[in-house]
């Protein structure tokens, strides 16, 4: 166990949870009761908690609640399957009915200039089949959501967009970055811009981009990649109007992530203070989308305060996008030791650095030299913090930094070497994605050697961690597409011949694994087993998700 995991395994009893909480809606609260009843009624293997929190009402809430209360229940809260299903059918619309299919505005079966370097006929046919998935994933919010938002947990959005698919029936924040990269490869520039329009709409409404476009996600955000989305679209289209529209929103998002709850100050060995970012959800109750399961995990805690702290850690881990991983646990064998709010994550701070660089770039485009200078200065300040706080010279990696228990945002903590988490995670290499780092050839070559000897490189790609927890989807042997992409792209952008060779090798392994799995199953999977080429991943609190393409 690494030195950073030296703290007590049960931190939740130390002090009262006094962080902010964003109120939820009456509908969400009621649907949590429905979800709990479903949990009691169905076998666990046949139960997906999200299906019940995504239901829409056919009638007003008070009438539906009255009907629910009149159902005959047993002492443990369950009802007969027949009675429950009759109630659901009578009073609710199915999850997903509040979204309407819409033909993508710029979809072509084989767009001109599509993946010109892919010459292998079999691989090219596969790529075109995957490209065809855009027609399956295109949706707009139904008129009912706009006219009667009180009947839905889905939030209104101004324009059509893309959803991830399977159980994920709504727009998600950081997933949208890779959706946009795919859309740009498919020459669907207008659809890519529409996704940014929807995310800016959420930001303007709530003050931050939500985890996803649901009422139960209003208590947290996700890794801040909106600036990266705008950059990629501008880089492909030269759309200055998009930059002008996005810049005020990005300044607002930057302010959110630098608010008191998300920032901590580290005092380094050279007598400098560094303001760095953490995940911190504005919620201390069970996550509505997984309420029944969260309550079971929290049942080991003896008092309300311990439960509230654990619930905040759960929601904050969901804000990270890495839900769940031993990366966030003080005790890797104990799920309830989640301590995400006491970690300064290296990848989150890399994304903040990327945002600072992007905002400086956009400000230059629109002619605001003062903002450009301010954010360029901020980026160089953060780069120094990376060297002082996150960099581990012996490992040749950037690593997460653990905060001391009871730390207050306004009080500087003195940097301690033992607080660096020296366990190896794929996130330790994400800073390579940032040009300030991948342009430094000696640094890139050192980090590349560290990656090669880390144990993360496997037959089918990069493992997310070295810990096989057996139940966490962001742990070994699972590989995850966003991680492959950021590390590969960072290595490839460098001037190092060796780094570029490693990048090509990882990319070929990952694409081969995806292709082999696709040939066997006809589907694209959420995660893959990087130990075995063509095997999809497992673990987590829901069944692994996949998308089936229309095969020719």
TrEMBL record:
<dbReference type="GO" id="GO:0004555">
    <property type="term" value="F:alpha,alpha-trehalase activity"/>
</dbReference>
<dbReference type="InterPro" id="IPR008928">
    <property type="entry name" value="6-hairpin_glycosidase_sf"/>
</dbReference>
<dbReference type="Pfam" id="PF01204">
    <property type="entry name" value="Trehalase"/>
</dbReference>
<protein>
    <recommendedName>
        <fullName>Trehalase</fullName>
        <ecNumber>3.2.1.28</ecNumber>
    </recommendedName>
</protein>
<dbReference type="GO" id="GO:0005993">
    <property type="term" value="P:trehalose catabolic process"/>
</dbReference>
<comment type="similarity">
    <text>Belongs to the glycosyl hydrolase 37 family.</text>
</comment>
<keyword id="KW-0326">Glycosidase</keyword>
<dbReference type="InterPro" id="IPR001661">
    <property type="entry name" value="Glyco_hydro_37"/>
</dbReference>
<keyword id="KW-0378">Hydrolase</keyword>
<dbReference type="InterPro" id="IPR012341">
    <property type="entry name" value="6hp_glycosidase-like_sf"/>
</dbReference>
